[in-house]
């Protein structure tokens, strides 16, 4: 569909705006809701990077201009009434200004919901800590100390996993395995290895 045809199908409100939902294209997790006008829609489609309209500042803003947390466009859709836009994006770092990966972290009610994206959340939070250091952050401490320190922790946590398994203590084993996963993710970020890299390798092994 051409950009003009797409825009003609959108029902902008009396201020020339339409609600836009950003969703992680890999996990389908809803990241944020903002507003777009015709110009920001055009920019987003032409640059393949999310651009919104700030109602408080009354101007366009490209996601990530100041934070570096860019949203690369993977898909754009509109709903049946044409009054809302859905964007599937590749999120760099955190979507929320608080540092959380998604703006929707305040849980009100939950029944039987299984979070399939927790590894991605932790991975992206580690990237956020690397790119936006916080005083007192253990993750930043590991990055500051460098590769040798990270490798030492991976080795230590591997030993703890072995001990937990030998002790036949499930609670201890789960705890130590989570420590190992976390430090392994820190190593991945430090060395430029992505979760997609692991998925591709695992997929090749199980064809």
Automatic annotation (TrEMBL):
The keyword Amino-acid biosynthesis applies. Its EC number is 3.5.4.19, 3.6.1.31. One of its GO terms (molecular function) is phosphoribosyl-AMP cyclohydrolase activity. Pathway: Amino-acid biosynthesis; L-histidine biosynthesis; L-histidine from 5-phospho-alpha-D-ribose 1-diphosphate: step 3/9; Amino-acid biosynthesis; L-histidine biosynthesis; L-histidine from 5-phospho-alpha-D-ribose 1-diphosphate: step 2/9. Residues 119-207 are annotated as: Phosphoribosyl-ATP pyrophosphohydrolase. Keywords: Amino-acid biosynthesis, ATP-binding, Cytoplasm, Histidine biosynthesis, Hydrolase, Multifunctional enzyme, Nucleotide-binding. Gene3D superfamilies: MazG-like (1.10.287.1080), Phosphoribosyl-AMP cyclohydrolase (3.10.20.810). Residues 32-105 form the Phosphoribosyl-AMP cyclohydrolase domain. GO terms for cellular component: cytoplasm. Residues 1-118 are annotated as: Phosphoribosyl-AMP cyclohydrolase. It is found in: Cytoplasm. Its main location: cytoplasm. PANTHER family: HISTIDINE BIOSYNTHESIS BIFUNCTIONAL PROTEIN (PTHR42945), HISTIDINE BIOSYNTHESIS BIFUNCTIONAL PROTEIN HISIE (PTHR42945:SF9). In the C-terminal section; belongs to the PRA-PH family. In the N-terminal section; belongs to the PRA-CH family. This is Histidine biosynthesis bifunctional protein HisIE. The lineage of its organism: Bacteria, Bacillati, Bacillota, Tissierellia, Sedimentibacter. The gene is hisI.
């Amino acid at each position: 569909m051409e950009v003009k045809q797409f825009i003609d199908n959108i029902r902008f409100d009396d201020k020339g705006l339409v609600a836009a939902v950003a969703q992680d294209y890999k996990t389908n997790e809803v990241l944020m809701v903002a507003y777009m006008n015709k110009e920001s829609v055009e920019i987003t489609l032409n640059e393949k990077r999310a651009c919104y309209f700030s109602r408080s500042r009354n101007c366009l803003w490209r996601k990530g201009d100041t934070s570096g947390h860019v949203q690369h466009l993977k898909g754009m859709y509109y709903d049946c009434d044409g009054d809302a836009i859905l964007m599937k994006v590749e999120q760099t770092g955190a979507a929320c200004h608080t540092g959380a990966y998604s703006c929707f972290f305040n849980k009100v009610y939950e029944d039987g919901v299984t979070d399939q994206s927790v590894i991605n959340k932790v991975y992206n939070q580690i990237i956020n800590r690397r790119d936006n250091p916080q005083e007192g952050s253990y993750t930043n401490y590991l990055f500051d100390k460098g590769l040798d320190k990270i490798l030492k922790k991976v080795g230590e946590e591997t030993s703890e996993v072995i001990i937990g398994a030998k002790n036949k203590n499930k609670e201890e084993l789960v705890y130590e395995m989570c420590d190992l996963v976390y430090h392994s993710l820190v190593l991945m970020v430090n060395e430029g290895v992505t979760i997609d890299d692991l998925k591709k390798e695992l997929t090749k092994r199980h064809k």
